[in-house]
């Protein structure tokens, strides 16, 4: 398999810019809201987070919601907001691609295209992303085994795109006290099995803001190459995933608290 780590092989570096590189010495932090809601929201996020430093911004414009009646994302209008925040704040942006038909317009703006959990085994989408010409953030499926996760990444790489970052975001289990169960064992295993960078999303893993920071630290301590964390200028007002959103102040404090952990490993 192309993504399997062979003896003594160098890690794949996935670059969003000359400074933002997954798999290198530095841990990469991605922060931002679940959904892009307004220009003002994204400007506030960019302003507060770029000093933290947070290296890239996240924000969904096409949202995979459980119910068709829930907010589905701002779509094209959201993408324009993302393009503007990227340009004005000189910061890479990450957004989710749900369909082959969205690839072209999203790739024109985003520096990293996210494949969400619900699409981890959408094989036609994965094959098409092999030709997207942009790095891909592949999130682990809701109940995907490590082997299935690696198989999904192999689809993208074997179709022509070696720039893949894996993301552990929690898996389904019997207890729904936390939204999902963060599988840090998988992070350690993936780092041994593949040369691709591995990051962690503690927000979707736990689903409760008060549990995010300790797990973010644990993820770095066990070797994750980065984090993707949801935060919002007014967390309680978030249109989607409000319960897990950190305030921007808490996000900045978390980023600072990660520095000694990253330095220790
Ligand atoms: C998200 O990042 O907002 C998201 C929907 O993530 P996941 O696919 O991990 O549920
Ligand atoms: Mn979300």
UniProtKB/TrEMBL annotation:
Enzymatic class: transferase
> Which key words tag this protein in UniProt?
Transferase
Q: State its Enzyme Commission number(s).
A: 2.5.1.54
SUPFAM superfamilies named among the record's database cross-references: Aldolase (SSF51569)
Q: Which InterPro entries match?
A: Aldolase_TIM, Class-I_DAHP_synthase, DAHP1/KDSA, DAHP_syn_2
Top-level taxon of the source organism? Bacteria
Q: Where is the DAHP synthetase I/KDSA domain?
A: 14-258
Q: What's a single GO MF annotation on this record?
A: 3-deoxy-7-phosphoheptulonate synthase activity
**Gene3D superfamilies linked to this entry:** Aldolase class I
One Pfam short name: DAHP_synth_1
Matching entries from PANTHER family are given as: PHOSPHO-2-DEHYDRO-3-DEOXYHEPTONATE ALDOLASE, PROTEIN AROA(G)
What name is this protein filed under?
3-deoxy-7-phosphoheptulonate synthase
Q: What's the gene?
A: aroF
């Amino acid at each position: 398999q192309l993504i399997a780590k062979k003896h003594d092989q160098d890690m794949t570096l996935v670059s969003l810019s000359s400074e933002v590189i997954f798999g290198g010495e530095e841990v990469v932090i991605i922060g931002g809201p679940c959904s892009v809601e307004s220009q003002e929201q994204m400007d506030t996020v960019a302003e507060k987070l770029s000093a933290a430093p947070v290296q890239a911004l996240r924000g969904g414009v096409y949202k995979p919601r459980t119910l068709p009646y829930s907010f589905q994302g701002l779509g094209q209008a959201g993408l324009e907001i993302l393009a503007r925040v990227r340009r004005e704040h000189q910061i890479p942006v990450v957004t989710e691609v749900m369909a082959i038909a969205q690839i072209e317009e999203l790739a024109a703006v985003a520096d990293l295209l996210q494949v969400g959990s619900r699409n981890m085994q959408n094989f036609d989408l994965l094959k098409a992303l092999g030709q997207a010409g942009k790095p891909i953030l592949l999130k682990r499926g809701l109940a995907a085994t490590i082997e299935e996760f690696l198989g999904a990444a192999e689809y993208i790489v074997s179709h022509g795109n070696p720039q893949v970052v894996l993301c552990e975001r929690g898996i389904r289990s019997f207890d729904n006290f936390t939204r999902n169960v963060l599988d840090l064992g998988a992070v350690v295993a993936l780092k041994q099995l593949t040369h691709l960078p591995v990051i962690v999303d503690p927000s979707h893993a736990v689903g409760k803001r008060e549990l995010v920071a300790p797990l973010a630290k644990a993820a770095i301590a066990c070797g994750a190459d980065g984090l993707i964390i949801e935060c919002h200028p007014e967390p309680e007002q978030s249109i989607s995933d409000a319960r897990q959103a950190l305030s921007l102040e808490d996000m900045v404090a978390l980023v600072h608290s990660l520095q000694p952990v990253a330095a220790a490993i």
